[in-house]
Structures are given as C-alpha cells and as structure tokens.
Amino acid sequence: MKEEKVILVNENDEQIGLMPKLEAHEKAILHRAFSVFILNNKKELMLQQRAHHKYHSPSLWTNTCCSHQREGESNIQAGTRRLEEEMGFTTPLKETISFIYKAPFDNGLTEHELDHVLVGQYEEDPIINPDEVSDWKWMPIEDVKKDIIENPNDYTAWFKIIFDKFYEHIVI
C-alpha cells in the first residue's frame, strides 16, 4: 500500500507541497488536518478511543474522528470520508473554526497541524473500524469538559486544545 501524503500548508492554509505523513510528523512540518465532532440531540459528544496500535496517541480518547485531507479533497469531503472509514456512518458536516497547534510526542514525532474543526449531528450508534478505533461512547459535553481537567492524560493533545480554546464552536 502506498504511503499516504499530507498537504503541507503555510499559516494561511495555502498548499505549499505534499509529504509522506510519517515524514511530516518526524520533521514537525505544518500540514492540513481536520477534527470531526458528532453530537446527538441530548448534547452528548461521540468520543472514540484510538486504536491501541496507533503510532501516536494510542488508546487515548478523542473527538469522533480526525485525519488529513487528501490532495484535491475539501474539508467536508475529507471529514465525511474518514467518518465512514472510522465510525461506519455519514452525516452532514459543517465547518466551524481552524487553528494551528504543535504537539510533540514521547516517540519523537510531532503533530504540527492546521486543524479544521467540523461538526455534525447523529443519533445512532456507530459501527467502529477496529483497525482505527478501540472503543467509543456518548458523553455529555459538560462531563467531557470536566473530565479533561480531571484526567488530561486520557485525551489527545488536539482534543484538549479544542476544548480549552474553541469549546463554543463545537456546541451545536
């Protein structure tokens, strides 16, 4: 299987090149990404626990899904594709905000992403892909906010940043 490439961008989200995903994480190069947040009508957030074999942030809890756009793919197209691949469903998504973050990991890799936050609503249970997701749960959004403060090591870096700085953009 061909290694997936990420879209390298400048701080204005303008594409400046492509690079293999692992290389971008090894060199901490800024690249485009997205994070999908799915809520239900009870204001619960669908969380996923990343698969135990992921090369960074394994077994941590995070937003419903996240990944990288492919060249020529819009943020919504990418989010829809990945939601189907990881969680087994699709639902309409809308773009909210984007932000840049940099998070080094213990294994020497670094996420340096311009992350686009996408939100949607869904009421059913997902059909998770075990290659990507170990577990999932619905959690009241206020409980998530509180648990991140009490148990920060249980959550991914980008998820904590979004909840800390952009919380009001994910509450639909």
Question: How would you explain this protein's 3D organization?
Answer:
Helices cover 25% and strands 37% of the residues. With 172 residues, the protein is an alpha+beta fold. A hairpin with a 5-residue loop joins β7 and β8.
Q: Based on Cα principal axes, name the global outline.
A: globular
How many separate helices? 5
Helix/strand order: EEHEEEEHEEEHHH
Distance between the termini: 38 Å
- Give the percentage of residues in beta strands: 35-45%
> Could you tell me the radius of gyration in angstroms?
15 Å
Tell me the structural class: alpha+beta
Sheet having the most strands = 4 strands, mixed
Topology:
Layout: E1 5-9, E2 15-20, H1 21-27, E3 31-39, E4 44-50, E5 61-62, E6 65-67, H2 75-87, E7 93-104, E8 110-121, E9 133-140, H3 141-150, H4 157-165, H5 167-170
Parallel strand pairs: 3-8
Antiparallel strand pairs: 1-2, 3-6, 4-5, 4-9, 7-8
Attribute tags:
25% helix, 3-stranded antiparallel β-sheet, 172 residues, 4-stranded mixed β-sheet, 5 helices, alpha+beta
